[in-house]
Amino acid sequence: MFFGKLFKKNHSHYLTQAGKHLAAERFADARFDFLEALKRCPGDAVSDEREIRAGLNAAGDSLGLLNLQEGEHALQAVDLVKAFDHFTLAGELAVDEKIKVAARAKLASLQQSSAAAPIPSQGPSAHKAHGGSSCASCKDAGSHQPAEQNQPDSNLSEEDRFFLMIQPLQGDLAARYAALGEKFATAYLLVHDGNDTDALPILREILTSGDNDIVIYEVALIMYRAGQLHECEALLNRSLSINPGNSMSYLALVQLRAETGRYAEAIATVDLMMGLGIMPDQGQLMLGELQEAAGNEAAAFEAFTVALALPAVARSAAERLIPMLDKQGRLDEAKFLAKRYLKGCC
């Protein structure tokens, strides 16, 4: 008991350690030690408490930024579950309102109109076995499913909410969404808030003035959520007939076909996308995931190996390859990939 009291660490110890971790950019360790310091900080140590809180804010904001970056990497690799986790953490850990707003915008985009991952819910569990990530289905990822109990941010106008939500969209899609006007923005926000019933008539009214691939895509997602899969697929094909370059419609079509067990058709769609130069890096990763979901492990391994050479998806490819190498008993190769590609994951 005496020695326990003698060597008990006070707030100054944790504050010093936290400062060292912060300087070394070990932000998670710094945040832990700042929290420990705050717990032990006496009420009269006003200066130390101020320093601790400032350090906590700095560590939290740094972790928020790192998670935004990791979320972007996951989004580029079409790993929506991991992207969702990182964007959620970014919003929770950061103190800076700009970082929080950015994280909310990313989550909003994931929950509605960002690219859908093409792996069905019954797909292989190997992704989850390593690194806690998996590829999501329409229902899992939320890109075809409105957020439950999702309340509008009372601090933002509807115009600002819409603007923030569309910013993460790929290529020129943000500008195209913004150009669709106030009615479309209203429908988009209704969908985001889980109100498909009121959004659908607005979108259909917009289509009476002429076909638009984006509006048709949004209607297709509503049909998906309503369980009308044949109509959803027909609408996605219609969207692509209007604009063969709409990556979101391609990705949703790939996912829908994979989710209904039509892996050969899904793979052919990805091949078509890649041939048109649409998301070629992410497409290579999708090919591996689709082959794996279809039970073609050798083809999946080959596709992931090719993806490993593509910087945008290399980390995700490594995450898929490592459990496959472990299963084959190629432990040294698995360790090499983990060290090279997964080092420093927050």
Question: Summed up, what is this model?
Answer:
The chain has 346 residues and is mostly helical. The chain has 20 helices and no strands. Among the domains are: 9-110, no CATH class; 299-346, no CATH class.
Structural class: mainly alpha
The run of helices and strands is: HHHHHHHHHHHHHHHHHHHH
Helix content: 55-70%
Question: How many distinct helices?
Answer: 20
Low confidence ranges: 1-8, 113-154
The number of strands is: 0
Mean pLDDT: 81
| Strand content bin | under 5%
Main sheet characteristics = none
- Global Rg: 23 Å
Overall geometry comes to flat
How far apart, in Å, are the first and last alpha carbons?
37 Å
What does this structure look like?
The protein has 346 residues and is mainly alpha-helical. Among the domains are: 9-110, no CATH class; 299-346, no CATH class. Helices cover 70% and strands 0% of the residues. It has 20 helices and no strands. The protein has helices at 2-6, 11-23, 27-40, 46-76, 80-93, 97-111, 126-129, 138-141, 158-166, 173-178, 182-192, 196-207, 213-225, 229-242, 247-259, 263-275, 280-293, 297-307, 314-327, 331-341. Helix 11 packs antiparallel against helix 12 (196-207) and helix 14 runs antiparallel to helix 15. It is flat and about 70 Å long. It starts with a helix and ends in a 5-residue tail after the last helix. Mean pLDDT is 81; it is low at 1-8 and 113-154.
